[in-house]
Amino acid sequence: MESFNEMDTNQLNNRNSTTQQLTQDDYLKIGLEQEKRRQYMQKRRYNRLPLIFSLIGLLLTFVFGIGAVFAVIGLIMAFKRYRKAPSKPLRWAIVISLITVFICVIYVFCLFYAFILGALEIYSTTESLL
C-alpha cells in the first residue's frame, strides 16, 4: 500500500463503496505516518535554530561586535541541545559560534586599540600646540 503522503486527497475522496475502502488499519498507518512526519519536522526545527543564530552572528561580526551576542546565544542553545541529541547542524552551530565569538573579540579589541591610539595622538597634537 502506498503511503499517505504519496496518496492524493482526490484518490481518498473518489473511493466509493464499490472500490476498496480504507480500513481501520489504513487509518492507523496514516496516523502513524503523520505523527512520524510531525516529529521529524519538529526535530529539524529544534536543530536549526542555533545554526540560524550562529550564522546571523557571523554576518553581524563586523558591526561593532554585535554578532557576538547572537553567536553566544546560538552557542548556548547548541551546547544544551547537543548534549540531549547530537546532530550535525548542532555541531556546525557550535563551530560557527566559536569562530564568530573569536573574530568578534579580536575585532572589538582592535577597535578599542585604534580608538585609544587615536585619542592619544589627538592628545599629543593638542599638547604640542599649546
Helix and strand run? HHHH
Strand content: under 5%
General form: rod-shaped
Average of per-residue pLDDT values: 81
Total domain units = 1
Structural class call reads: mainly alpha
Which percent range fits the helix content? over 70%
Largest sheet: none
Radius of gyration: 28 Å
Number of extended strands: 0
End-to-end Cα distance, whole Å, is: 93 Å
Query: Please, how many helices?
Result: 4
Q: Show unreliable segments.
A: none
Give a brief rundown of this model.
With 130 residues, the protein is mainly alpha-helical.
Structure description:
The protein is an all-alpha fold and 130 residues long. The protein has one domain. It is 78% helix and 0% strand. It contains four helices and no strands. Helix 2 runs parallel beside helix 4 (88-129). The mean pLDDT is 81.
